[in-house]
Amino acid sequence: MRLILTMLFAVLALADARSAEAPAKVTFADHVQPILRAKCASCHNHDKPSGGLIMENYTTLLEGGSSGAVIKPGDPDGSKLYVSMAHKAMPFMPPKSPPLPKETAEVIRQWIAGGALDTAASKPAAPTAPKTDIGLKAIVKGKPDGPPPMPPSALPLDPLVRTLRANSLTALASNPWSPLLAVSGQKQVILYHADTGDVLGVLSFPEGQINVLKFSRNGSLLLAAGGRAGQSGKVVVWSVATGQRVVEVGDEHDAVLAADISADQTQIALGGPSKMIRIYSTKDGKKLFDIKKHTDWVTALEYSPDGVLLATGDRNGGLFVWESYTAREYFTLRGHTAAITEVSWRADSNVLLSASEDTTLRLWEMENGSQIKSWGAHGGGVQSAKFGKDGRIVSCGRDLVTKIWDGNGAQQKAFEAFPDVALRATFSHDGSHVIAGDWSGHIRVWNAADGKLTANLTSNPLPVADRLVQATKDVEAKHAAYNQAVATASASQSAAVKAAADLAAAQKAIGATALAAKAAADNATKAKSAADQANAAAAGASATAVAKDVVAKAYAEAAAKVKDAADKAKDNKDLAAAAMKSRELATQAANESAAAQKSAADLATAAKTFAAQLAAAQQAATTAASVAAAAPKAVEALTTASKAAAAKAAADKAAVDQAAAALAAAKAQTERLKAVTVAATSKK
């Protein structure tokens, strides 16, 4: 303390003469800090806290050094800083030097007496008031008791900063137990409902750009870290349930690039361009450890789920594991050849995942610190990688693609590429969705199972009034889409009904045509039998007619001969009797021959008739057989057409259901925005 106050005494002696006349309201920001920063910050800073005292900022000055507080707001005479500087108590500062000018000391006295104000708008400090203690008595594994942590309705819904275009997604977090997403915006955190895509609130982060967003393991706290590059950095913790800041630690000279809160919520670790790992107590904000091991910017860190270990990585590929409560080195994990972009622990704390610009993802076991798996994940470099509660891994990178891997590194899903470098990715609280964003500010939500896009979010949301106008237009558009879907589905349903009816008729026709073909074939068979019989009868009659004709001719010839003989022997009675008999026989034969000829002619005509009938029956049988053969093919074609029509009708019905759901969601969002608008108006 003697050395600290000696240096402070010497610096104050060099203060500008303008500080000789103390103003009516002395503040740290306007009067004290410029003096301290001019000379003290080079030695009393986070990197070189001589004597444990850091005089860079208001918070650390009030915290004091290794020997305790040096300032008691409202009590100058009880403040070591003032009494030593004014030579009112030993040790005098600076040693072996005259005291500071009374006017300079008076400025410090008035500042302390006035309550040690930070700024003109600040309230007097109350050092005796305890800070919020967010530490847990024990780490609870699994889902915590009580309702899922969600933000209060009192949070502002209008963005605190609105820009022409969305910023790059520099940070993204998903609450492990509730449908709550945290998205980095311009000096603000946008809270979204993971299921509905509604903005649930906006948290201010005036400290600068947000580089880190993480929920505590039980989901009750939200941590944000960042700052202004080359100027300042800080870590802020909000209560999810109240939306109030409960802890602020760190006052870096550069932006914080990596930070996390331990599982028991008693520690906050941070890192950045200083190459230092700083660990703070959440109970009183005091720094517990400085870890000086990294040789380049600290770019990633995370506590294990059981709170025992802390993993950290840097821009040079350095990767280390530390004991959380002692800050002793546990493992040095060698293998990466480029910047570490993220580290993530498996739920059982036994395996660490590391992501790097060297394109790889690597798994490390914590028994011996050995690498158990390494694979090329994203060409050009991995930007983000996280374990899900079920052991799956989600990652994204410079190849513009977001991917899901199983616990052994086998790719399960690759989602549609972003237009620019994919920067952040995470699972939703239940692992059913993947949320990711890119350099151009696009933020997408996909179904993890089928890869379908379910929502688009933004880090630059419109004010509520404008969102209501947009939502109203969206309802109109979705209503029109719903009507069109209904009309299309109605037409496709009618087509499906007709196709089914045609198919049923064709299926019924198969039996009818088969029966008709059989009947026609039977008829043809009968006709053939009749024709064959007719032909046989005609042939027999023709043969009989020929025979009868031969007999008739023979009888006629014989009768002529007998008659000729009788005519020559007219006195021969026997010849006369024979001539008469032979004439009778010839006449009878001629009559029989004529009858046979007529019968043969009739039967020949009948045979022709039966032949024509046979031809007709055979043609009918052939036609019926063709029709019967064609019927199954027609059924096959109609079956295909019917299935296609039914599938289209089902798809169009599903489209109607989707359109109805989208319309209902749009209406619900509009109603929520209306309710918010009414509530905001009533508050005014």
Any overview of this molecule?
This protein is α+β, with helices and mostly antiparallel strands. 39% of the residues lie in helices and 23% in strands. The protein has helices spanning 2-13, 28-39, 58-63, 80-85, 102-113, 464-568, 573-683; strands at residues 172-174, 180-184, 188-193, 199-204, 209-215, 221-228, 232-239, 245-252, 258-261, 267-271, 276-281, 287-292, 298-303, 309-314, 319-323, 329-332, 340-345, 351-356, 360-365, 371-376, 382-387, 393-397, 402-405, 411-414, 422-427, 433-438, 443-447, 453-457. Strands 1-2-3-4 form a four-stranded antiparallel beta sheet, with no helix packed on it. Helix 6 runs antiparallel to helix 7. The longest helix has 111 residues, at 573-683. The radius of gyration is 52 Å and the shape is rod-shaped.
Head-to-tail CA distance between termini: 53 Å
> Any low-confidence stretches, pLDDT <50, length ≥5?
1-23, 127-131
Number of helices: 7
Mean pLDDT: 87
**Sheet/helix structural class:** alpha+beta
Strand content: 15-25%
| Envelope shape | rod-shaped
Question: How many individual β-strands?
Answer: 28
Q: What topology, given as strand order, has the largest sheet?
A: 1-2-3-4
Largest sheet: 4 strands, antiparallel
> Whole-number radius of gyration?
52 Å
Helical coverage, percent range: 25-40%
Write the topology of this structure.
Layout: H1 2-13, H2 28-39, H3 58-63, H4 80-85, H5 102-113, E1 172-174, E2 180-184, E3 188-193, E4 199-204, E5 209-215, E6 221-228, E7 232-239, E8 245-252, E9 258-261, E10 267-271, E11 276-281, E12 287-292, E13 298-303, E14 309-314, E15 319-323, E16 329-332, E17 340-345, E18 351-356, E19 360-365, E20 371-376, E21 382-387, E22 393-397, E23 402-405, E24 411-414, E25 422-427, E26 433-438, E27 443-447, E28 453-457, H6 464-568, H7 573-683
Antiparallel strand pairs: 1-2, 2-3, 3-4, 5-6, 6-7, 7-8, 9-10, 10-11, 11-12, 13-14, 14-15, 15-16, 17-18, 18-19, 19-20, 21-22, 22-23, 23-24, 25-26, 26-27, 27-28
Helix pairs in contact: 6-7
